[in-house]
Design brief:
- This protein is an alpha+beta fold.
- It has 2 domains: about 5-120, N-terminal domain of MutM-like DNA repair proteins, CATH 3.20.190.10; about 130-255, Helicase, Ruva Protein, domain 3 (Orthogonal Bundle), CATH 1.10.8.50.
- Helices cover about 30% and strands about 20% of the residues.
- Helix 1 (about 5-20) crosses helix 7 and helix 6 packs across helix 7.
- It is globular.
- The chain binds a DNA duplex through helix 1 and helix 6.
Length: about 260
DNA sequence: GCTAAATGTTGAT
DNA sequence: TCAACCTTTAGCT
């Protein structure tokens, strides 16, 4: 269940473990037809862009993976375990194997298709080549809410429901503010914080946005759920002001925010 | 054992 | 705005 940080973490881990090695490629579920074509080839690169993950096999092309809402990749050291019937693709070397389960996308694509994919994505705060101004140009001209815009992968790539809620909270921004009403300074704050929080997410391999001082409860111990300020904290007291965190449906997703801290 | 929910996106109405 | 798709897990009974 991934936002951009999960995908980038996978790209880093799999670069270390699979790139430059001869890889066995199979599809226990038998729904990835190109597996047999890639089987036994050397993996040349792994790349993440937003929530998209690409495995390059030289001239053969790229395996384009999108995990969707509940896709997962399990990476384990060998010996190989029997694969579940739901494993769409298994990559394996002598030392490691990775099982892809439940993706919305797992397809071999060519250079043109890869270029087209990147073309339609906004800048990714986790990529060194990101041009944040491309996002500001779209955002500052849109009458959509900043909450909707942060989730729009054409505007900015890699942010999902959890990071959206947390970034808006940390910026003290009302999620319903229109893109056109956002100041450049507010945008810069969002972008810089996105970079910081998502990098932290890659490192921790999970989303942690709370500051240590906000994590400590006055009378209690630190809880595992202390990782976020508002995400999945509906009806719970805001860590800073104590008023109730609100959950409201927005475009089919759950939006969490603190109406008192986010004016 | 059953149900609901989950860090997502697309395409039809 | 809604349904469809993909699968696991937590929280019930």
């Amino acid at each position: 269940m991934p936002e951009g940080h999960t995908i980038h973490r996978l790209a880093l881990d799999h670069s270390d473990r699979f790139v430059g090695r001869t890889v066995t490629v199979t599809s226990p579920q038998d729904r990835f037809a190109a597996a047999s074509r890639l089987d036994g080839q050397v993996l040349s690169d792994v790349e993440a862009y937003g929530k998209h993950l690409l495995y390059r096999f030289g001239e053969a092309g790229w395996v384009h993976i999108h995990l969707g809402l509940f896709g997962k990749i399990w990476t384990k050291p060998t010996p190989l375990e029997p694969a579940r019937s739901t494993v769409r693709m298994r990559l394996a070397t002598i030392d490691w194997f990775a099982d892809l389960v439940g993706p919305t996308q797992c397809m071999l694509i060519d250079a043109d298709e890869r270029a087209a994919l990147f073309q339609r994505l906004g800048p990714d705060p986790l990529r060194a080549d990101a041009v944040p101004d491309a996002a500001w140009q779209k955002l500052s001209k849109s009458r959509q809410s900043v909450a909707a815009l942060l989730m729009d992968q054409h505007v900015i790539a890699g942010i999902g429901n959890a990071f959206r809620a947390e970034l808006l909270y940390r910026a003290g921004l009302n999620p319903h503010v229109e893109g056109t009403r956002l100041t450049f300074a507010q945008w810069q704050m969002l972008w810089r914080d996105a970079k910081r929080m998502m990098r932290l997410g890659v490192r921790a391999n999970r989303i942690v946005t709370t500051r240590p001082e906000d994590r400590e409860r006055r009378h209690g111990r630190v809880q595992p759920s202390d990782a976020t300020y508002v995400y999945r904290r509906a009806e719970m007291p805001c860590r800073r002001c104590g008023s109730m965190v609100v959950m409201e449906p927005l475009a089919g997703r759950r939006l969490y925010w603190c109406p008192s801290c986010q004016r």
